[in-house]
Predict the 3D structure of the following.
Amino acid sequence: MSALSELNKEIALCQQCEIAKYRNRVVPGEGAEDADIMFIGEAPGWHEDQQGRPFVGPAGKYLDELLASISLRREQVYIANVIKCRPQGNRDPLPTEIQNCRQWLQRQIETIQPKMIVTLGRYSMAMYFPGKSISKIHGTAQKRDDVVYYAMYHPAAALHQQSLRQAIEEDMLKIPTLLTQAETIKEEPEPEQLSMF
């Protein structure tokens, strides 16, 4: 069994948060174990909780379309969330839940070793771009420790606000170029303090 599969089995047994009592399925993540690009969303929704897979609802269908626009399929990337269990009623993740789940996400990143991490939405963005506003930094990249961090709106945002669809689609189209030119992106210092939420 691969290191990632072993890790996902550990994640499935996690009981650190109250929400573990209410979940149907843990949603560790899925995709290529040697993916160059890792997408990190917020938290599983209803569909994900039913299937144990990330991004399988309407936002997931849109993410699949976005990937297709840059000639990728979800099997070629890795898709995960900041937290691995669905918060009841699709509420926002709590700081303690984000903190408890952080070790799992960190171990996934260490195992996969992606060249690029794409944050989808403000919760994953806050981990790597603390203190920044998504409306100001979406579509921009930073490089730290040889990893390119790239901020995007969450695909669900386009489902609620049609006006964001064009920005999301344009931001996605920049990814292949950023990946091929990763060596030329200037290294940034580590942010002062990585935020919990």
In short: Residues 122 and 134 are 6 Å apart (CA to CA). The chain has one domain: 3-182. Residues 95-112 form the longest helix (18 residues).
